[in-house]
Design brief:
- This protein is an alpha/beta fold.
- The chain folds into three domains: 46 residues, no CATH class; 141 residues, Immunoglobulin-like (Sandwich), CATH 2.60.40; 291 residues, Alpha-Beta Barrel (TIM Barrel), CATH 3.20.20.80.
- Helix content is 27%, strand content 24%.
- It has twelve helices and 24 strands.
- α9 runs parallel beside α11.
- The longest helix is centred in the N-terminal third of the chain and has 29 residues.
- The chain is globular, with a radius of gyration of 27 Å.
- The termini are far apart.
Length: 509
């Protein structure tokens, strides 16, 4: 009897393994995807005993440990009358401000399926278009070509990059003609990157004119908070701070740290309200500056880029041994952006190589990706679902997983456990608030004493808010939670708690 049972179990396991191997070999062609990590976790869970204790429902949970491991005081330790409610996490895609996909702003509704729901758009400014005559800046062209007023009206924010050299299939120049006539020390090229003109970035006339142009851009876009991220382009092909000297040794070399710092200083002065990002962690990266990776999904390129962030290193374009500075925790205080690589098909990155793609994004702690992003009209259904999975962890994802409330005959206290289920924090001072809504619909607001910017991915914090309402009267109110935009002082962020919402407020009770 026992022998027969063991034999049957072995046969079942062999059949399951055969199916798994078949799907891994031929599943891609059949539109089926299997996640080896999920299988590993499932098998492991069968043999591991769950030793975690269930959280208490009342005064049994007087203290607990937060993500730092320190014991903290809870509402249950303060009052005898305490009620605890626990919440499940939401599995939905949350289109929250200042994060997610950033599709190209020069598209229109209907042309790009991402544009309606995205909260960010990306646009580039080439110097030749921006300043056709010295000192004459064509903001109207920038606005019109990129539908910027439409995106402002829709409540979106923008990622901006200024470019002096954009390789294309045609012979052209991305700096103004008037500037070319004043400098003429760059070089035209025709390489595997494309065709274009590489200026001499060390030319003093070029630098002076560039910094004036950046100041004009900053003055214009600092009139409101529309442009939130500025990728410091300016130098190199595509504004990525490198030139293809491997194929054309005659191209002007990249400038040294001292000269590059002049370009950086211009951005710092021009965009005081935006977050600045660089292609690599250069020594001249300003305080609070982030980084961006335009090879998202490419394993070799991205791991090299992550290596620069982790360890620093030599900037090969100039040979400077200390050109790149280690900033392993940069994501904790500054944003990480970039776009998907064009060297790998999007379908492949999201299906066959999804584990690699996902791991690289998580290791990078990315907040936004664009302008090259997935499009549903170019992908299979399975790939599109994977692209939405990425949106479930990229950037910040704040949730309330538990609420305790208690009190006495003079006041009440509401304790909430807040977690960040994303891979990065938010980088602006958004505030979390509790709201008490009475039976007439009147809402009273109470700010929660929590710094969301320091609640990094994977962290959690328990915080108590005192309410001047007797405990026995608290039942007359609806308790809600929200995260408010510092500009509008209104709720603007969806919370990743599986509970009913009214607008951006989540109903806790």
């Amino acid at each position: 009897m026992v022998k027969d049972i063991i034999t049957n179990i072995i046969l079942i396991i062999l059949i399951i393994l055969t199916i798994i191997v078949f799907i891994m070999l031929f599943g891609k062609d059949l539109g089926i995807y299997i996640d080896p990590n999920a299988i590993k976790e499932s098998i492991t869970s069968l043999f591991e005993k769950d030793t975690e204790e269930e959280p208490g429902n009342s005064a049994d949970a007087a203290t607990e440990a937060d993500s730092s491991g320190e014991d903290i005081v809870t509402v249950a330790s303060m009052y005898e009358n305490t009620v605890t409610i626990e919440y499940e996490l939401s599995d939905e895609v949350l289109y929250n401000p200042l994060m997610g996909y950033a599709p190209n702003a020069n598209t229109t509704h209907g042309d790009d399926v991402n544009i309606d729901k995205a909260t960010l758009v990306y646009f580039e400014v080439t110097w030749a278009d921006f300043e056709p005559e010295e000192g004459v800046y064509d903001f109207e062209k920038i606005e019109t070509d990129n539908n910027l007023q439409e995106w402002r009206n829709a409540g979106k924010n923008a990622v901006l990059r200024f470019i002096c050299d954009d390789p294309t299939d045609e012979d052209h120049m991305d700096i103004p003609q008037w500037l070319y006539k004043e400098t003429k020390d760059g070089k035209k090229y025709d390489t595997s990157y494309g065709k274009g003109y590489c200026p001499n970035y060390s030319n003093e006339v070029f630098i002076e004119a560039h910094n004036k142009a950046i100041k004009a851009l900053g003055d214009y876009f600092s009139k409101d908070s529309f442009v939130r991220y500025v990728e410091m382009g300016s130098l190199g092909h595509w504004g990525e701070w490198h030139v293809n000297i491997d194929e054309d040794e005659g191209l002007p070399v990249m400038p040294d740290t001292q000269i590059r710092a002049l370009y950086v200083d211009a951005y710092v002065d021009a965009f005081p309200g935006a977050k600045l990002l660089m292609r690599r962690p250069f020594a001249e990266l300003p305080e609070g500056g982030g980084v961006y990776n335009d090879m998202v999904g490419a394993y070799k390129d991205t791991t090299e880029w992550l290596g620069w962030i982790e360890e620093g290193g030599t900037y090969e374009q100039t040979g400077d041994a200390e050109g790149l500075v280690a900033r392993p925790d940069i994501w904790e205080t500054a944003p990480v952006g970039g776009e998907f690589t064009s060297s790998i098909e999007m379908e492949e990155m999201l299906i066959g190589a999804y584990d690699t793609t996902s791991s690289l994004i998580k290791d990078s702690h990315m907040t936004f990706i664009g302008p090259k992003v997935p499009r549903s009209d170019e992908l299979t259904g399975a790939a599109w679902l994977r692209s939405e999975d990425i949106l479930k962890y990229i950037g910040y994802r704040y949730a309330v997983t538990r609420m305790d409330y208690g009190g006495d005959d003079t006041e009440s206290a509401i304790g909430i456990k807040v977690s960040n289920e994303g891979i990065a924090p938010i980088y602006w001072d958004y505030t979390m608030c509790l709201y008490l809504k009475d039976q007439t619909g009147y809402i009273e607001k109470y700010q929660v004493d929590i710094d969301l910017m320091s609640l990094c991915g994977g962290d959690s914090e328990y915080v108590i808010t005192k309410i001047p309402v007797p405990f026995d009267e608290l039942a007359n109110y609806q308790i809600l939670v929200g995260i408010e935009d510092p500009d509008t002082q209104e709720p603007a962020v969806y919370i990743a708690t599986n509970a009913a919402r009214t607008g951006f407020r989540t109903i806790l009770l």
